[in-house]
Specification:
Layout (H helix, E strand, L loop, with lengths): L1 H8 L4 H5 L8 E6 L5 H14 L4 E3 L11 H9 L3 E6 L7 H12 L4 E5 L17 E3 L8 H30 L8 E2 L6 H9 L4 E3 L12 H4 L3 E3 L15 E7 L6 H4 L4 H16 L3 E5 L6 H17 L6 E6 L7 H8 L5 E6 L20 H20 L3 E6 L11 H11 L4 E4 L4 H10 L10 H7 L3 H10 L6 H10 L2 H5 L6 H9 L3 H18 L1
Parallel strand pairs: 1-2, 1-3, 3-4, 4-5, 6-7, 7-8, 9-10, 9-13, 10-11, 11-12, 13-14
Helix pairs in contact: 1-6, 10-11, 10-21, 13-14, 13-17, 20-21
Length: 531
C-alpha cells in the first residue's frame, strides 16, 4: 500500500502520473560492502525478493555496462533511488560505501541504514547518520520477515521524504516560510549548510518536529538559521502568561470510512500542539485522570526536557482532578508526585448539596446509577472551575459515548467555554464530539450523538442518571444545547481567537496537523499582541 501511495501520490510530473508503471516505482539502491559475508549475503537475499515485486533496484557494479563511467553511473542510479545502507562490520571503512552515502546526501535522496553488526565497527561514518535505522540481528541468512522490515522501512522513508518535500514547497508557496529559505526533508547537516552558504543561503527549513537546541547549536557558529514551519527560536516566550486549556479526549473511532482519519492522528495532534505551546512558555490546563503512559505522560516528559534545556523549574502543566479521582490508590499518587517539578495538581472537591451525604476520604466506584450521578456532578464542577482558570480553550476529539459525566466531557467543556465567553478553538477535522459540534455551527444536519435518545441508547445506565439529575433540576437538555450551537456564528467564534472567518472555518474542518497547530498559534499570537 505504501509503495502504491508513493507511485500515484508522489510522482513528480503529470507525465509520470500518466505512465505510473515501472517508471514511478521506488528504486532501491543496495549499498553494501563486498568484503565479509553479512553485507553481501543480505544484499543478495533482498535483491532476489525485490526481483519478485514491482519495485526496481540497483545491486552492485556488475550491473554497470562496459564502457560507462563508473562514478557517473553510480550517481545516476543513486539520484533515482532510495539508498539502503547494509551496515556490516566493514561497511563504514570501505571507500565506495562512503562515496555512495555521500552521493545520496549530496543529491538529497532518501536513505535508511540497516544495522547488522556482528562484532563492532571501529568508527561510525558520520554521513551515515540523521536517517532512519533498522536493526537486524546478524545470522548466516536473513529471514523473509527481516527483508520485509527493511523494505517496508525504505518505502515508508521514501513516502515521508517525498511528502515532506512537497509539503514544505506548499508551505513556502502559501507564505508560511521565508521566500529565500532553502528546504530540506530532514534536519540540516554540516556539508549541506556549507554548500548552501556558497550560494548565499543562510536560512533552511526542515519538517516538524524541531530538533533540540543542543543538537543544533552549531548553526549559530556558521551564521545559519534553521527552523521548522511551526517553530523559530525567537518565539520561545511569545505566549508567556497564557493559560491554555486543552479539551482533548480520545474516542471510539467508527472506522476510516466514517471518520476519514487514522486513530493515531488525534494523539499526534495532541503531542505536537502541547510541545509547541509549552515551548512558547504557555501554561497548559488539562482536566483528566492522569495515569502512566499515553498523552499526559508525553506532555510531562516534554515539560521536563524543556525545563532541563533552559535551566528552569517552571510548572508547565496544571492538572485538574475531580473527586474521587484524586483519592485513588498510592501508585497513582506516587506517579503524580514524581512529576511535581513540572505539574501542579488541583484537586476539586465534592459539590453541594451531595457533599453532605458523602465521606470525601472514601472512594466510590462508578458502578451504580447513584454513584454515576455523583461522578457526573463532580466532573461538572471540575470542568467549570478549570475552564474559569484558563484564558483560552482548545477543543478536539472527545467521546460520544462511554463517558462518566452528565454529557460527553468535551461537549460540556465547549458549552462552559461558550457560556464564559472564553476564546475557543474548535477543531472538527479529527472526529469525535467536537466534529459534531462543528457540524451544527456550520449549519449542517444535527448529528444523532447530540440527541438524548441516542445517548440513552449508547450509554448503559444513562437513562437512570438523567432521571436522578432531573429530580435535582440538573439534567442535560440536548435540545437546548443544539439550539445554542445553532445560534452561534463562525465570525463570533473567530474574532476572540484572533482569526478571521475563513481561517476559523479552515480550523474547524482541516485534518492536517501542521495547519491546525499553525492556525492556533497564529491566533494566540494575535491575541497576545493585541493585549
Amino acid at each position: 500500500m505504501s509503495h502504491e501511495i508513493n507511485r500515484f501520490g508522489l510522482v513528480k510530473t503529470d507525465e509520470e502520473y500518466e505512465r505510473a508503471g515501472s517508471h514511478s516505482s521506488i528504486t532501491i539502491f543496495l549499498s553494501h560492502a563486498k568484503a565479509g559475508d553479512t553485507g553481501r549475503v543480505y544484499s543478495e537475499k533482498i535483491k532476489k525478493f525485490i526481483d519478485n515485486t514491482n519495485m526496481n533496484r540497483f545491486f552492485d557494479a556488475n550491473e554497470i555496462a562496459p564502457g560507462y563511467m563508473f562514478e557517473e553511473e553510480i550517481k545516476d542510479n543513486v539520484n533515482r533511488s532510495t539508498l539502503v545502507a547494509i551496515e556490516s562490520d566493514l561497511y563504514s571503512s570501505r571507500y565506495w560505501c562512503q562515496r555512495e552515502i555521500l552521493i545520496a546526501k549530496e543529491l538529497d535522496r532518501p536513505v535508511i541504514v540497516v544495522n547488522c553488526l556482528e562484532d563492532f565497527e571501529d568508527r561510525i561514518f558520520p554521513a551515515a547518520s540523521n536517517v532512519p535505522c533498522v536493526h537486524i540481528t546478524p545470522s548466516p541468512e536473513i529471514s523473509d520477515k527481516d527483508v520485509l522490515r527493511i523494505l517496508s522501512s525504505a518505502i515508508i522513508e521514501s513516502v515521508r521524504f517525498g511528502y515532506s518535500s512537497k509539503s514544505l514547497e506548499a508551505y513556502k508557496d502559501a507564505g508560511w516560510l521565508d521566500a529565500d529559505c532553502a528546504l530540506s526533508a530532514r534536519p540540516p547537516e554540516l556539508r549541506q549548510v556549507l554548500k548552501l552558504q556558497k550560494r548565499g543561503v543562510s536560512k533552511i527549513c526542515y519538517p516538524e518536529p524541531p530538533i533540540y537546541s543542543e543538537e543544533g547549536d552549531w548553526h549559530q557558529y556558521l551564521g545559519v538559521t534553521a527552523y521548522t514551519p511551526l517553530w523559530t527560536e525567537d518565539e520561545e516566550d511569545c505566549l508567556a502568561g497564557q493559560a491554555i486549556g486543552l479539551s482533548i479526549s480520545e474516542f471510539k473511532n467508527e472506522g476510516y470510512a466514517y471518520e476519514h482519519i487514522p486513530e493515531e492522528a488525534l494523539v499526534r495532534l495532541s503531542q505536537d500542539l502541547a510541545r509547541h505551546l509549552m515551548a512558547r512558555s504557555a501554561i497548559l490546563h488539562y482536566g483528566g485522570d492522569l495515569r502512566p503512559g499515553g498523552f499526559t505522560e508525553f506532555i510531562l516528559d516534554e515539560a521536563r526536557i524543556l525545563n532541563s534545556r533552559v535551566g528552569s523549574s517552571r510548572v508547565r502543566l496544571v492538572n485538574h482532578l475531580a473527586w474521587p479521582l484524586h483519592i485513588e490508590g498510592p501508585k497513582v499518587v506516587s506517579w503524580r508526585a514524581s512529576y511535581h517539578d513540572v505539574m501542579q495538581t488541583v484537586e476539586h472537591d465534592i459539590p453541594p448539596p451531595i457533599n453532605e451525604t458523602l465521606d470525601d476520604k472514601v472512594f466510590i466506584p462508578p458502578t451504580s446509577a447513584r454513584n454515576l450521578y455523583v461522578w457526573a456532578r463532580c466532573l461538572t464542577k471540575m470542568r467549570r472551575e478549570s475552564i474559569g482558570s484558563s484564558t483560552v480553550r482548545v477543543c478536539v476529539g472527545g467521546r460520544r459515548s462511554g463517558y462518566k459525566g452528565q454529557m460527553p466531557g468535551v461537549l460540556e467543556e465547549i458549552m462552559f467555554s461558550i457560556e464564559m465567553k472564553k476564546p475557543i478553538f474548535l477543531l472538527g477535522g479529527f472526529g469525535g464530539i467536537a466534529s459534531d459540534v462543528c457540524s451544527v455551527i456550520r449549519g449542517e444536519s444535527i448529528p444523532d450523538s447530540l440527541t438524548e435518545n441516542w445517548q440513552i441508547a449508547h450509554n448503559d445506565g444513562y437513562i437512570d442518571v438523567q432521571a436522578i439529575s432531573k429530580n435535582d433540576g440538573v439534567d442535560t437538555n440536548f435540545s437546548a444545547i443544539v439550539g445554542q450551537l445553532e445560534r452561534l456564528s463562525v465570525s463570533e467564534l473567530a474574532g476572540p481567537c484572533g482569526l478571521d472567518e475563513s481561517e476559523y472555518l479552515r480550523l474547524m474542518m482541516s485534518p492536517f496537523i501542521d495547519e491546525c497547530v499553525r492556525l492556533i498559534i497564529l491566533g494566540l499570537r494575535r491575541i497576545q499582541d493585541a493585549s
